[in-house]
Design a protein that fits this description.
With 167 residues, the protein is mostly helical. Helix content is 86%, strand content 0%. Helix 3 crosses helix 4. The chain is elongated and about 90 Å long. It starts with a helix and ends with a helix.
Amino acid sequence: MAHTNAMNYSPLNVIPTREEEVTRFRELQNIFDNFFKWLFGVIAFKTTAAGEDLFMAHPIIMMAMILMIVLYFSLWLFGTMLPWCTGIFLMILVFIMMVIASVFSVLGVTIVSSLLAGLNVMLWVGLFALSAYYCYQELCELVARAISDTIKQLIDDYRTQSTRLPV
């Protein structure tokens, strides 16, 4: 019995295929392309008269927005670079990216209008509630699957031990 289990065991392929590497490279290229477009857009906006006035009137908000851009793209890069980015880790990463995007959005709209910022906050709270509900369902399903697999493993181990004859 143990011999057949050992023969059927095959380790996970940790060496990525060429297609996976090409796909990851294209995703990274897309991330950097978008990141530099955003940063150069901010720099170009700052050089205009309106942009200079905005940076002078709201320096903390503008610096926080630039920080949010860098954090968002860093997390996106982090999620793309790690090949084991699945399950709970991916949900947490996406949730953090949503928080950063919501803060960026609220900061940007705060400059324009406080009423629009309030509506924006309500929209994000609704989106967070919806995603928390979805993540809760996924988490419950993962826990139920883990408990069920553990019980099955315990039962299988008990059956194999009880069928062995003493030597």
